[in-house]
Amino acid sequence: MLIPKLALRNILSAGLRTWLSVLALSFSFVAIIFLQGVYDGLNDQVERATVEAQYGGGQYWQKAYDPYDPLSLEDAHAPIPPQLQELTAGGGAAPILIRTATIYPQGRFRSILLKGIDPDQKVLSVPSTALRSLENVIPGLIGSRMAKSAGLKKGDVVTVQWRDVHGTFDARDVTIAEVFRTNVQDVDNDQIWIPLERLQAFTRMENQATIVVLKKDVLPVTDPPGWEFKDSGFLLRDLRSLVKMKSVQGSVMYLLLLFLAMLAIFDTQVLSIWRRRKEMGTLMALGMTRTQVIELFTMEGALHGVLAALVAAIYGIPLLAYAAGRGFDLPIATDNFGFAIGEKLFPAYSPALVAGTTLLVCIVTTIVSYLPTRKIADLKPADALRGRLS
Predict the structure, then answer these.
(1) Does residue 390 lie in a domain region?
(2) CA dist., res. 274 & res. 37, Å (int)
(3) How many structural domains are present in the chain?
(4) Is position 324 within any domain?
Protein backbone atom coordinates (compact mmCIF):
# COMPACT_ATOMS: atom_id res chain seq x y z
CA MET A 1 0.00 0.00 0.00
CA LEU A 2 3.02 2.30 0.34
CA ILE A 3 3.45 2.93 -3.39
CA PRO A 4 -0.25 3.80 -4.11
CA LYS A 5 -0.37 6.18 -1.13
CA LEU A 6 2.88 7.83 -2.14
CA ALA A 7 1.76 8.10 -5.75
CA LEU A 8 -1.55 9.72 -4.75
CA ARG A 9 0.24 12.21 -2.49
CA ASN A 10 2.68 13.10 -5.24
CA ILE A 11 0.07 13.82 -7.93
CA LEU A 12 -2.11 15.81 -5.54
CA SER A 13 0.88 17.89 -4.46
CA ALA A 14 1.51 18.77 -8.14
CA GLY A 15 -1.55 21.00 -7.92
CA LEU A 16 -2.77 22.74 -11.07
CA ARG A 17 -0.62 20.66 -13.40
CA THR A 18 -2.37 17.48 -12.22
CA TRP A 19 -5.89 18.88 -12.43
CA LEU A 20 -5.36 20.25 -15.91
CA SER A 21 -4.32 16.79 -17.11
CA VAL A 22 -7.24 15.19 -15.24
CA LEU A 23 -9.73 17.66 -16.71
CA ALA A 24 -8.46 17.09 -20.26
CA LEU A 25 -8.68 13.33 -19.78
CA SER A 26 -12.19 13.60 -18.31
CA PHE A 27 -13.33 15.43 -21.46
CA SER A 28 -12.18 12.41 -23.45
CA PHE A 29 -14.16 10.11 -21.15
CA VAL A 30 -17.39 12.05 -21.61
CA ALA A 31 -16.93 12.69 -25.33
CA ILE A 32 -16.23 9.03 -26.16
CA ILE A 33 -19.20 7.79 -24.12
CA PHE A 34 -21.44 10.50 -25.58
CA LEU A 35 -20.57 9.74 -29.21
CA GLN A 36 -20.82 5.98 -28.81
CA GLY A 37 -24.14 6.45 -26.98
CA VAL A 38 -25.45 8.38 -29.97
CA TYR A 39 -24.58 5.49 -32.29
CA ASP A 40 -26.08 2.93 -29.89
CA GLY A 41 -29.23 5.02 -29.56
CA LEU A 42 -29.44 5.37 -33.33
CA ASN A 43 -29.12 1.61 -33.76
CA ASP A 44 -31.71 0.80 -31.07
CA GLN A 45 -34.18 3.40 -32.33
CA VAL A 46 -33.92 2.37 -35.97
CA GLU A 47 -34.13 -1.35 -35.23
CA ARG A 48 -37.14 -0.96 -32.94
CA ALA A 49 -39.06 1.14 -35.46
CA THR A 50 -38.19 -1.19 -38.35
CA VAL A 51 -39.20 -4.31 -36.44
CA GLU A 52 -42.51 -2.79 -35.37
CA ALA A 53 -43.47 -1.49 -38.81
CA GLN A 54 -41.93 -4.02 -41.20
CA TYR A 55 -40.16 -7.12 -39.88
CA GLY A 56 -42.09 -8.16 -36.79
CA GLY A 57 -40.72 -11.39 -35.34
CA GLY A 58 -39.43 -12.51 -38.73
CA GLN A 59 -40.84 -13.13 -42.19
CA TYR A 60 -41.66 -16.11 -44.37
CA TRP A 61 -40.70 -15.38 -47.97
CA GLN A 62 -42.16 -17.10 -50.97
CA LYS A 63 -39.16 -18.75 -52.63
CA ALA A 64 -39.23 -16.43 -55.68
CA TYR A 65 -39.36 -13.23 -53.61
CA ASP A 66 -36.36 -10.91 -53.71
CA PRO A 67 -36.89 -7.46 -52.14
CA TYR A 68 -34.02 -6.05 -54.21
CA ASP A 69 -35.42 -7.29 -57.53
CA PRO A 70 -38.82 -5.80 -58.46
CA LEU A 71 -39.02 -8.17 -61.44
CA SER A 72 -39.21 -11.13 -59.05
CA LEU A 73 -42.61 -9.93 -57.81
CA GLU A 74 -44.24 -11.25 -60.99
CA ASP A 75 -43.78 -14.81 -59.73
CA ALA A 76 -43.43 -14.14 -55.98
CA HIS A 77 -46.81 -15.44 -54.80
CA ALA A 78 -48.13 -18.76 -53.56
CA PRO A 79 -51.01 -20.17 -51.49
CA ILE A 80 -50.57 -19.53 -47.78
CA PRO A 81 -49.55 -22.84 -46.12
CA PRO A 82 -51.93 -24.34 -43.53
CA GLN A 83 -49.42 -23.81 -40.70
CA LEU A 84 -49.23 -20.09 -41.46
CA GLN A 85 -53.01 -19.87 -41.91
CA GLU A 86 -53.39 -21.14 -38.34
CA LEU A 87 -50.98 -18.50 -37.06
CA THR A 88 -52.84 -15.84 -39.03
CA ALA A 89 -56.21 -16.91 -37.64
CA GLY A 90 -54.81 -16.65 -34.12
CA GLY A 91 -53.37 -13.17 -34.71
CA GLY A 92 -49.78 -14.41 -34.71
CA ALA A 93 -49.01 -13.62 -38.35
CA ALA A 94 -49.99 -11.19 -41.11
CA PRO A 95 -49.87 -12.23 -44.80
CA ILE A 96 -48.95 -9.54 -47.33
CA LEU A 97 -49.41 -9.79 -51.08
CA ILE A 98 -47.12 -7.50 -53.08
CA ARG A 99 -47.61 -6.57 -56.73
CA THR A 100 -46.02 -4.01 -58.99
CA ALA A 101 -48.47 -1.37 -60.21
CA THR A 102 -48.76 2.04 -61.83
CA ILE A 103 -50.73 5.03 -60.60
CA TYR A 104 -51.84 8.09 -62.56
CA PRO A 105 -52.01 11.11 -60.21
CA GLN A 106 -52.80 14.48 -61.87
CA GLY A 107 -52.32 13.05 -65.35
CA ARG A 108 -48.86 11.64 -64.56
CA PHE A 109 -47.83 8.02 -64.18
CA ARG A 110 -45.70 6.50 -61.47
CA SER A 111 -44.52 2.97 -60.69
CA ILE A 112 -45.36 1.78 -57.18
CA LEU A 113 -45.75 -1.32 -55.06
CA LEU A 114 -49.34 -2.32 -54.35
CA LYS A 115 -49.55 -4.18 -51.04
CA GLY A 116 -52.49 -6.11 -49.68
CA ILE A 117 -52.81 -6.47 -45.90
CA ASP A 118 -55.55 -7.59 -43.54
CA PRO A 119 -57.24 -4.48 -42.06
CA ASP A 120 -57.61 -6.27 -38.71
CA GLN A 121 -53.97 -7.35 -38.35
CA LYS A 122 -52.10 -6.36 -35.19
CA VAL A 123 -48.68 -7.70 -36.13
CA LEU A 124 -47.27 -4.51 -37.68
CA SER A 125 -47.67 -0.89 -36.62
CA VAL A 126 -49.05 0.04 -40.06
CA PRO A 127 -52.52 1.56 -39.29
CA SER A 128 -54.37 -0.92 -41.50
CA THR A 129 -57.66 -0.38 -39.66
CA ALA A 130 -58.17 2.66 -41.91
CA LEU A 131 -58.75 0.23 -44.79
CA ARG A 132 -62.13 -0.84 -43.37
CA SER A 133 -63.51 2.67 -42.97
CA LEU A 134 -64.88 3.13 -46.50
CA GLU A 135 -67.74 1.30 -48.22
CA ASN A 136 -68.44 0.80 -51.92
CA VAL A 137 -64.95 2.04 -52.76
CA ILE A 138 -61.48 0.58 -52.68
CA PRO A 139 -59.73 2.19 -49.69
CA GLY A 140 -56.03 2.93 -49.92
CA LEU A 141 -53.47 3.72 -47.22
CA ILE A 142 -50.33 5.72 -47.98
CA GLY A 143 -47.48 7.21 -45.99
CA SER A 144 -46.73 10.90 -45.68
CA ARG A 145 -43.69 10.68 -47.97
CA MET A 146 -45.73 8.98 -50.67
CA ALA A 147 -48.48 11.56 -50.26
CA LYS A 148 -46.04 14.43 -50.62
CA SER A 149 -44.17 13.05 -53.64
CA ALA A 150 -47.33 11.97 -55.49
CA GLY A 151 -49.38 15.05 -54.56
CA LEU A 152 -52.10 12.98 -52.85
CA LYS A 153 -54.09 13.60 -49.70
CA LYS A 154 -56.86 11.95 -47.73
CA GLY A 155 -60.02 11.60 -49.80
CA ASP A 156 -58.29 11.80 -53.20
CA VAL A 157 -59.08 9.22 -55.84
CA VAL A 158 -56.24 7.78 -57.92
CA THR A 159 -56.29 5.20 -60.70
CA VAL A 160 -54.14 2.13 -60.06
CA GLN A 161 -53.19 -0.36 -62.78
CA TRP A 162 -51.69 -3.83 -62.31
CA ARG A 163 -51.41 -7.28 -63.91
CA ASP A 164 -53.35 -10.27 -62.60
CA VAL A 165 -52.03 -13.80 -62.27
CA HIS A 166 -52.47 -14.39 -66.01
CA GLY A 167 -50.62 -11.22 -66.98
CA THR A 168 -53.81 -9.37 -67.96
CA PHE A 169 -53.90 -5.64 -67.20
CA ASP A 170 -56.58 -4.44 -64.79
CA ALA A 171 -57.24 -1.07 -63.20
CA ARG A 172 -59.37 0.38 -60.41
CA ASP A 173 -59.90 3.73 -58.72
CA VAL A 174 -58.52 3.75 -55.18
CA THR A 175 -59.71 6.30 -52.62
CA ILE A 176 -57.06 7.43 -50.15
CA ALA A 177 -58.60 6.52 -46.79
CA GLU A 178 -55.73 7.73 -44.63
CA VAL A 179 -52.26 9.24 -44.77
CA PHE A 180 -50.06 7.97 -41.95
CA ARG A 181 -46.70 9.05 -40.61
CA THR A 182 -43.94 6.54 -40.04
CA ASN A 183 -40.21 6.64 -39.51
CA VAL A 184 -39.72 3.57 -41.70
CA GLN A 185 -39.38 4.56 -45.32
CA ASP A 186 -39.67 0.97 -46.57
CA VAL A 187 -43.38 0.89 -45.73
CA ASP A 188 -43.99 4.36 -47.13
CA ASN A 189 -42.05 5.29 -50.27
CA ASP A 190 -43.88 4.50 -53.54
CA GLN A 191 -46.42 2.20 -51.88
CA ILE A 192 -50.18 1.95 -51.54
CA TRP A 193 -51.77 -0.46 -49.09
CA ILE A 194 -55.23 -1.91 -49.78
CA PRO A 195 -57.25 -4.72 -48.13
CA LEU A 196 -55.66 -8.11 -48.72
CA GLU A 197 -58.85 -9.86 -49.83
CA ARG A 198 -59.54 -7.16 -52.40
CA LEU A 199 -56.08 -7.43 -53.93
CA GLN A 200 -56.28 -11.23 -53.95
CA ALA A 201 -59.59 -11.05 -55.79
CA PHE A 202 -58.44 -8.41 -58.29
CA THR A 203 -55.31 -10.38 -59.20
CA ARG A 204 -57.06 -13.80 -59.08
CA MET A 205 -54.66 -14.93 -56.38
CA GLU A 206 -57.18 -16.08 -53.78
CA ASN A 207 -55.60 -17.06 -50.46
CA GLN A 208 -52.12 -16.24 -51.77
CA ALA A 209 -49.36 -14.03 -50.37
CA THR A 210 -45.83 -12.92 -51.08
CA ILE A 211 -44.60 -12.76 -47.50
CA VAL A 212 -46.04 -13.67 -44.10
CA VAL A 213 -44.87 -11.56 -41.16
CA LEU A 214 -44.77 -13.17 -37.72
CA LYS A 215 -45.74 -11.30 -34.61
CA LYS A 216 -42.93 -10.55 -32.19
CA ASP A 217 -42.28 -13.37 -29.70
CA VAL A 218 -44.16 -15.89 -31.87
CA LEU A 219 -42.04 -18.96 -32.55
CA PRO A 220 -41.59 -19.87 -36.22
CA VAL A 221 -42.83 -23.18 -37.58
CA THR A 222 -40.93 -25.57 -39.81
CA ASP A 223 -40.42 -24.00 -43.24
CA PRO A 224 -43.37 -25.01 -45.43
CA PRO A 225 -42.52 -26.19 -48.97
CA GLY A 226 -41.80 -23.20 -51.20
CA TRP A 227 -41.33 -20.80 -48.28
CA GLU A 228 -38.24 -19.68 -46.38
CA PHE A 229 -38.14 -18.13 -42.92
CA LYS A 230 -35.97 -15.05 -42.46
CA ASP A 231 -35.26 -14.13 -38.85
CA SER A 232 -34.59 -10.65 -37.51
CA GLY A 233 -30.84 -11.19 -37.68
CA PHE A 234 -31.03 -11.74 -41.42
CA LEU A 235 -33.55 -8.97 -42.06
CA LEU A 236 -31.62 -6.39 -40.02
CA ARG A 237 -28.23 -7.42 -41.37
CA ASP A 238 -27.86 -4.56 -43.86
CA LEU A 239 -29.12 -2.01 -41.37
CA ARG A 240 -26.70 -3.16 -38.69
CA SER A 241 -23.82 -3.14 -41.15
CA LEU A 242 -24.64 0.45 -42.09
CA VAL A 243 -24.78 1.57 -38.45
CA LYS A 244 -21.57 -0.33 -37.72
CA MET A 245 -19.85 1.44 -40.61
CA LYS A 246 -20.95 4.80 -39.22
CA SER A 247 -19.68 3.78 -35.79
CA VAL A 248 -16.28 2.82 -37.22
CA GLN A 249 -16.07 6.19 -38.92
CA GLY A 250 -16.83 7.83 -35.59
CA SER A 251 -13.97 5.90 -33.96
CA VAL A 252 -11.58 8.27 -35.73
CA MET A 253 -12.86 10.99 -33.41
CA TYR A 254 -12.40 8.69 -30.39
CA LEU A 255 -8.79 8.06 -31.35
CA LEU A 256 -8.13 11.76 -31.82
CA LEU A 257 -9.57 12.64 -28.43
CA LEU A 258 -7.74 9.77 -26.78
CA PHE A 259 -4.47 10.72 -28.48
CA LEU A 260 -4.69 14.32 -27.25
CA ALA A 261 -5.43 13.18 -23.70
CA MET A 262 -2.63 10.60 -23.73
CA LEU A 263 -0.22 13.20 -25.09
CA ALA A 264 -0.93 15.36 -22.06
CA ILE A 265 -0.31 12.41 -19.71
CA PHE A 266 2.90 11.46 -21.55
CA ASP A 267 4.26 15.00 -21.38
CA THR A 268 3.38 15.19 -17.70
CA GLN A 269 5.28 11.95 -17.03
CA VAL A 270 8.35 13.03 -18.98
CA LEU A 271 8.43 16.38 -17.19
CA SER A 272 7.91 14.72 -13.81
CA ILE A 273 10.77 12.27 -14.35
CA TRP A 274 13.09 15.03 -15.51
CA ARG A 275 12.35 17.34 -12.59
CA ARG A 276 12.43 14.63 -9.90
CA ARG A 277 15.79 13.07 -10.68
CA LYS A 278 17.24 13.77 -7.26
CA GLU A 279 14.08 12.43 -5.61
CA MET A 280 14.48 9.16 -7.50
CA GLY A 281 18.11 8.94 -6.38
CA THR A 282 17.10 9.56 -2.78
CA LEU A 283 14.40 6.87 -2.91
CA MET A 284 16.82 4.36 -4.39
CA ALA A 285 19.48 5.29 -1.84
CA LEU A 286 16.93 4.64 0.91
CA GLY A 287 16.40 1.10 -0.37
CA MET A 288 13.69 1.37 -3.02
CA THR A 289 14.48 -0.79 -6.03
CA ARG A 290 14.40 0.43 -9.63
CA THR A 291 11.26 -1.68 -10.21
CA GLN A 292 9.52 0.00 -7.29
CA VAL A 293 10.47 3.44 -8.59
CA ILE A 294 9.06 2.51 -11.99
CA GLU A 295 5.88 1.25 -10.28
CA LEU A 296 5.62 4.52 -8.38
CA PHE A 297 5.78 6.73 -11.46
CA THR A 298 3.53 4.40 -13.47
CA MET A 299 1.00 4.44 -10.61
CA GLU A 300 1.07 8.23 -10.58
CA GLY A 301 0.20 8.32 -14.26
CA ALA A 302 -2.49 5.66 -13.87
CA LEU A 303 -4.11 7.62 -11.02
CA HIS A 304 -4.68 10.43 -13.50
CA GLY A 305 -7.10 8.09 -15.26
CA VAL A 306 -8.87 7.21 -12.00
CA LEU A 307 -9.23 10.86 -11.01
CA ALA A 308 -10.40 11.72 -14.53
CA ALA A 309 -13.13 9.05 -14.27
CA LEU A 310 -14.31 10.56 -10.99
CA VAL A 311 -14.29 14.11 -12.36
CA ALA A 312 -16.06 12.94 -15.53
CA ALA A 313 -18.75 11.30 -13.39
CA ILE A 314 -19.42 14.57 -11.55
CA TYR A 315 -20.43 16.53 -14.63
CA GLY A 316 -20.81 13.74 -17.19
CA ILE A 317 -23.61 11.75 -15.53
CA PRO A 318 -26.06 14.69 -15.32
CA LEU A 319 -25.12 15.83 -18.83
CA LEU A 320 -25.53 12.40 -20.44
CA ALA A 321 -28.73 11.69 -18.49
CA TYR A 322 -30.20 14.95 -19.74
CA ALA A 323 -29.22 14.14 -23.33
CA ALA A 324 -30.70 10.63 -23.10
CA GLY A 325 -33.97 11.90 -21.62
CA ARG A 326 -34.52 14.92 -23.84
CA GLY A 327 -32.98 13.67 -27.08
CA PHE A 328 -31.90 15.79 -30.00
CA ASP A 329 -34.19 17.44 -32.51
CA LEU A 330 -33.17 16.41 -36.00
CA PRO A 331 -33.45 18.58 -39.12
CA ILE A 332 -36.03 17.69 -41.75
CA ALA A 333 -33.28 16.67 -44.16
CA THR A 334 -32.48 13.58 -42.05
CA ASP A 335 -35.75 12.06 -43.27
CA ASN A 336 -33.97 11.33 -46.56
CA PHE A 337 -30.95 9.61 -45.01
CA GLY A 338 -32.48 6.14 -45.22
CA PHE A 339 -32.64 5.66 -41.42
CA ALA A 340 -35.88 5.16 -39.50
CA ILE A 341 -34.85 7.79 -36.95
CA GLY A 342 -37.84 10.06 -36.55
CA GLU A 343 -37.86 13.66 -35.45
CA LYS A 344 -35.66 13.07 -32.40
CA LEU A 345 -32.63 10.96 -31.67
CA PHE A 346 -32.26 9.58 -28.16
CA PRO A 347 -28.76 8.43 -27.15
CA ALA A 348 -28.48 5.16 -25.22
CA TYR A 349 -25.85 4.71 -22.52
CA SER A 350 -25.52 1.18 -21.18
CA PRO A 351 -23.48 0.19 -18.09
CA ALA A 352 -21.31 -1.94 -20.39
CA LEU A 353 -20.49 1.13 -22.52
CA VAL A 354 -19.52 3.23 -19.51
CA ALA A 355 -17.51 0.45 -17.86
CA GLY A 356 -15.80 -0.52 -21.12
CA THR A 357 -14.81 3.05 -21.93
CA THR A 358 -13.50 3.63 -18.40
CA LEU A 359 -11.48 0.43 -18.48
CA LEU A 360 -10.07 1.22 -21.93
CA VAL A 361 -8.96 4.73 -21.00
CA CYS A 362 -7.43 3.57 -17.71
CA ILE A 363 -5.47 0.80 -19.44
CA VAL A 364 -4.19 3.15 -22.15
CA THR A 365 -3.30 5.75 -19.51
CA THR A 366 -1.32 3.15 -17.55
CA ILE A 367 0.58 2.07 -20.66
CA VAL A 368 1.36 5.66 -21.66
CA SER A 369 2.49 6.37 -18.09
CA TYR A 370 4.84 3.40 -18.13
CA LEU A 371 6.62 4.23 -21.40
CA PRO A 372 8.66 7.23 -20.14
CA THR A 373 9.66 5.34 -16.97
CA ARG A 374 11.69 2.72 -18.86
CA LYS A 375 14.70 5.07 -18.69
CA ILE A 376 14.71 4.57 -14.92
CA ALA A 377 15.65 0.89 -15.37
CA ASP A 378 19.29 1.81 -16.08
CA LEU A 379 19.44 4.64 -13.58
CA LYS A 380 22.22 4.63 -10.99
CA PRO A 381 21.46 6.20 -7.62
CA ALA A 382 24.65 8.28 -7.64
CA ASP A 383 23.86 9.73 -11.05
CA ALA A 384 20.29 10.51 -9.97
CA LEU A 385 21.52 12.35 -6.85
CA ARG A 386 23.72 14.46 -9.12
CA GLY A 387 20.65 15.27 -11.29
CA ARG A 388 21.62 13.04 -14.21
CA LEU A 389 19.48 10.35 -15.89
CA SER A 390 22.29 8.62 -17.77
Answers:
(1) no
(2) 40
(3) 2
(4) yes
